[in-house]
Amino acid sequence: MVKRKTLRFGIIGLGLMGKEFASSVARWCHLNTSAPIPVLTAVCDTNPAALEWFKENVPSIKVAVSDHKELLKSSEVDAVYCAIPHSLHENMYIDILKAGKHLLGEKPFGIDKKANDAIMNVINNNPNLIVRCSSEFPYFPACKRLIEWIKAGSYGRLIEVRSGFHHSSDMDQTKPINWKRISSINGEYGCMGDLGMHTQHVPFRMGWKPISVYADLQKLVKTRPDGKGNTVPCDTWDNALLICKAIDPRNKEEFSIHFETRRMAPGATNTWYLEVYGTEGSARFTTADPKAFYVLETKGKEQGWTRFDTGSQSFVPSVTGGIFEFGFSDALQQMIAAFCEEFAEGGSKHQFGNVTPEETAASHALLTAALLSNKEKREIKLS
Description:
Number of strands: 17
CATH topology of the largest domain: Dihydrodipicolinate Reductase, domain 2
């Protein structure tokens, strides 16, 4: 038997997503893949309690530090998963790359376009490193079906595409503020920076890059409690609707594409959706109905929607029975598998890889234009 290669990971930022990452690695036998096996060997966070949780629950850890530069010096680390506030992306991601470590980083890959440009410059100077951005939702089996349907050109000519991400936790106006509601840490993009890449991953990969944008941004809650008895400014955008024009590379025809990100969306706890409407067919997927792939075929006049139950299997086969349910933790594991596939012998053969650095740059161009559009109340052309 040939011994499988391993990919030794360090995690910088041990919050919610860091724990999810550790959980995915711990149950790697769940996947039927020949890609290198991820092993969690190092962790870094300034919170001692967070470090303690990982030391207690992950026996493979050899390095547990509060200074990320110590982790990056370690010969026990090949790649880094980095989940930290946006204001830290530029310096931290550049440090990771200059240390010669591969990077799976959280979106938006820089607090603003200037930061993203700086990160991109270092990426381009280190072509031997694998660098990708986090985005889990395309790995839901029903979204996989939608991607395959799009690639087949089943829509005919595109009429409209709608892609969105809705939260509702901020509907509670007594909820204490956190860093995602502070522009100096989260960035001027607000909800667009935190949620936008989830809405853009599939459209961008399909070649649906916006050529113009008109943005409608909302700041609905101006202040929030700080959890210490005070009231402080809440200065990020809560909701955003980007109305764009794009060109379908299949037929060079123009169509409308809407990107919607909302932190105040009544009734939606954590809902991502993608809807594609065309002259010959339409299809849609939403995590509010995660097992379902909806499709509509048009023959002369509008027909009814058909619902297909997709089961559990995503791009990388798993041990789960095909009839069972798929959830966020499974999507995250599939995302990590797509990253590990980059290190497979002969290169990745994964059908739908992680967000590329170039796609993060396209996202920053769109979101920067959206800020200008909202400010000037006009459509902005993108080069």
